[in-house]
Write a structure and sequence with these properties.
This protein is mainly beta and 571 residues long. The chain contains five helices and 40 strands. A five-stranded mixed sheet has the order 1-34-35-36-37, with no helix packed on it. A four-stranded antiparallel sheet has the order 2-40-39-38, with no helix packed on it. Strand 22 and strand 23 form a beta hairpin. The radius of gyration is 23 Å and the shape is globular.
C-alpha cells in the first residue's frame, strides 16, 4: 500500500518515530482543519471559474479555455506583481502539471510526490511519495493537474497506476494497475471527472501498444469500461486496418493528454495520438482509425458518439492528443457550439462539437507536408513530401509539432486563441524492417532534429483568430522555444513562461511583455489565477522536464521543481 511520508517509520532506528509521526500528522491536520472543508461536488466542478476562490479542474474549467475573468491584476498594475511565497517540490524530473485549489488548499503533483499546501502561506499540509514498481527507468513526470472530486485527489503514475488519495490526509485510498510497462505502456496525463466517472488515458504511441481510455468508479476504483482507440476486426473503423493482419493489436492511438467535457451535451472530447508504426506499410497505407483523431464519448459508458480524424494515415507523429477548447462562438451569423484544437500537425481546427463536423482549419505554423485542408472531406491535401518519404527519401517535415503538448488559452472577450508555437522541423526516413519486440520502440523510421544555430527563431507566442487563422500578433522566440501553457485573464493579460526560466505576462492586445520574473528552472507548466480572502493570486510551477524541453534546455538550465505564488505589492 502506498503511504504518506508522515506515516512511514524507520523501524530499527527509532521505535518512537512512527508514533511521533502520527502525532505530528494529526497536529498538522487539526491546525488546518477549517481550510480542508467538505467534499467537492459535480456542481462545483461544472461551475469552476464562477467561484474564484477555487480551481477545481484542469485549465480552470471543463471547457479547457484556460481563461479567468479576474482583473484585479491588469495591464496597468502588473508591474507591481511580486512573489509572496515559493516552496520546493522535491523533484528533478520536471514540473508539467498545474495546481488545483479547494477551500484554501493547493494540490500539486509531479512524478515523485503529491502535495497539499496552504494557499496563503505556502506551508505544506501533507506530502505523499509516489512508490513505483521496481525496474522503472523512464523519467517520471505528470501533465495536466491534480484531479479532485468528492474528497479525493486522483492521479496516474508513470508505471500505469491510477490512484485516489484522501484530500485531508494524503493517505492512498485505492490503487489500480491498468497496463504493463513491459508492453510499452506508461502514463503521464491527468485524468478527469465527468458525470461522476473518473476517466484516464495512457501513453506509449511509439511502442507496440493499442491505445485506450478507462472509466473508473471514483469511490471504489472499480473499472467501469474500457474504450480502445484501435478497433478490433468487425468493429466500426476496422475497415481502415488491413485484413488478415494483427496490425490493429499494436496500432498506436495513445491518449496521453486529457479531455474536455460538455455537461449539457454529456460528452467528453479526448484526442488520440499517432498511428503505429509511422511507416505505413504494415498498416496497409490506410487511414488507421481512430488514431490522430478526436473522440466524443459518453462518460458513463465509453460509447463513441462521433469523431473527427485530423490526420488520416499519420506517418509523421503529428498526433491529436492536445486538449480541445470548448466555446460558443458566432459562425456566419449563427451561434455554434464548437471545439478548437491547435493540432500538432500545424493546423488550427474548429469543429462543431455536437456532431464532430469540420467548420474551419488554417495553418498556424509553417507546414510543408500538406498544402491545406479539403473542407468538403476534412482531409489534408498532401504535398510531395508524402511521396518522397514513402519512396525512401530522407525528408524534412514542417512542423515537427505545432505546439509541444501544452494548453492553449481562449479569451471569449477577444475571440482569440493564445498559443506557444514551435518553429522546428524534423528529418525523417523509413528504416529497413526489423523484428518486433513487444514493449520496444517500433516507429519504423529514423528521425532527428536539426541542430539549432545561435539566433534561430525556434517558436512564437501568438494570438490567433480560430475561424480565419489570422494572427493578431506573433512574438518570436530565439534560441529556445517555449514549452509552457497559456492563461488569459479579464485584466487583459496572457501569462506564460519560457524554457530559460522566466514567468511572464503579455499584453493581450500586442503580445508585448509587461512583466517577468525569473524562476529557478524552466517554466514548462500552465499558470492558474484565483482569489484568496479577496486578493487575486497567480501560481505557476517551475522545473525543467519533458523530453523535448530537456533536449533544448538541459545544457542551459538547472533542474529543480518549485511552485511560486504571486500577488500585487500593496501601494
Amino acid at each position: 500500500m502506498r503511504q504518506t511520508e508522515a506515516q512511514i517509520g524507520n523501524s530499527g532506528v527509532d521505535k518512537w518515530r512512527p508514533i511521533m509521526g502520527k502525532i505530528w500528522l494529526c497536529a498538522m491536520l487539526l491546525s488546518f482543519w477549517p481550510a480542508l472543508g467538505l467534499a467537492q461536488t459535480t456542481e462545483e466542478l461544472v461551475n469552476d471559474g464562477k467561484d474564484t476562490e477555487n480551481v477545481t479542474t484542469q485549465s480552470m474549467g471543463y471547457d479547457r479555455k484556460s481563461y479567468s475573468p479576474l482583473k484585479q491584476i491588469n495591464k496597468s498594475n502588473v508591474k507591481r506583481l511580486v512573489p509572496i511565497w515559493s516552496t520546493s517540490l522535491m523533484n528533478d524530473q520536471g514540473e508539467l502539471a498545474a495546481p488545483t485549489i479547494y477551500k484554501g488548499v493547493m494540490y500539486v503533483i509531479n512524478g515523485q510526490w503529491s502535495f497539499a499546501i496552504d494557499v496563503g502561506t505556502g506551508r505544506m499540509i501533507w506530502r505523499t511519495p509516489v512508490e513505483l514498481e521496481s525496474g522503472v527507468q523512464r523519467n517520471a513526470y505528470n501533465r495536466g493537474a491534480a484531479t479532485i472530486y468528492n474528497g479525493k485527489l486522483f492521479r496516474v503514475t508513470i508505471d500505469n497506476h491510477v490512484l485516489a488519495l484522501d484530500m485531508e490526509t494524503g493517505k492512498v485510498l485505492w490503487n489500480q494497475k491498468f497496463a504493463d510497462l513491459r508492453d510499452g505502456y506508461y502514463a503521464t496525463g491527468g485524468p478527469i471527472i465527468a458525470n461522476g466517472v473518473l476517466i484516464s488515458g495512457v501513453s506509449g504511441g511509439e511502442s507496440t501498444t493499442r491505445g485506450f481510455l478507462d472509466g473508473w468508479d471514483p469511490d471504489t476504483g472499480k473499472r467501469l469500461w474500457r474504450r480502445y482507440t484501435i478497433p478490433a476486426p468487425g468493429e466500426p473503423g476496422s475497415e481502415t486496418w488491413p485484413k488478415d493482419s494483427d496490425a490493429w493489436t499494436r496500432g498506436g492511438g495513445p491518449t496521453w493528454r486529457s479531455g474536455s467535457y460538455d455537461p449539457q451535451l454529456d460528452l467528453v472530447y479526448w484526442g488520440t495520438g499517432n498511428a503505429e508504426p509511422y511507416d505505413p506499410k504494415p498498416r496497409g497505407d490506410l487511414d488507421s482509425l481512430f488514431t490522430s483523431s478526436v473522440l466524443a464519448i459518453r462518460p458513463k459508458t465509453g460509447e463513441l458518439f462521433c469523431y473527427f480524424q485530423y490526420t488520416p494515415n499519420d506517418i509523421y507523429d503529428v498526433d491529436a492528443t492536445d486538449e480541445h477548447v470548448l466555446a460558443d462562438i458566432p459562425v456566419d451569423g449563427q451561434l455554434r457550439k464548437v471545439m478548437i484544437q491547435a493540432n500538432k500537425n500545424g493546423f488550427l481546427y474548429v469543429l462543431d462539437r455536437t456532431n464532430c463536423k469540420l467548420i474551419a482549419a488554417h495553418p498556424y505554423v509553417k507546414v510543408n507536408w500538406a498544402t491545406g485542408i479539403d473542407m468538403a472531406t476534412g482531409r489534408p491535401v498532401l504535398s510531395d513530401v508524402h511521396k518522397r518519404f514513402l519512396a525512401g527519401e530522407e525528408v524534412e517535415i514542417w512542423p515537427s509539432r505545432g505546439t509541444n503538448a501544452v494548453p492553449i488559452a481562449f479569451n471569449p472577450n477577444t475571440g482569440l486563441i493564445y498559443a506557444s508555437t514551435w518553429n522546428v522541423p524534423r528529418v525523417q526516413q523509413i528504416t529497413p524492417p526489423k523484428p518486433l519486440v513487444i514493449g520496444g520502440a517500433s516507429t519504423g523510421v529514423r528521425s532527428r532534429f536539426p541542430e539549432p544555430q545561435p539566433g534561430d527563431v525556434l517558436g512564437h507566442f501568438a494570438a490567433i483568430n480560430p475561424l480565419t487563422g489570422e494572427k493578431k500578433w506573433e512574438i518570436p522566440l530565439t534560441d529556445l522555444p517555449s514549452s509552457a501553457g497559456m492563461l488569459a485573464t479579464g485584466g487583459g493579460l496572457v501569462f506564460t513562461g519560457k524554457l530559460s526560466g522566466e514567468f511572464i505576462a503579455l499584453d493581450e492586445t500586442t503580445g508585448k511583455t509587461l512583466w517577468q520574473f525569473k524562476t529557478g528552472s524552466s517554466v514548462n507548466s500552465t499558470a492558474i489565477t484565483y482569489t484568496h480572502k479577496g486578493r487575486q493570486y497567480v501560481t505557476i510551477a517551475s522545473g525543467l522536464g519533458g523530453v523535448l524541453a530537456t533536449r533544448y534546455a538541459a545544457r542551459k538550465m538547472p533542474t529543480g521543481g518549485s511552485v511560486w505564488t504571486f500577488a500585487l505589492l500593496a501601494e
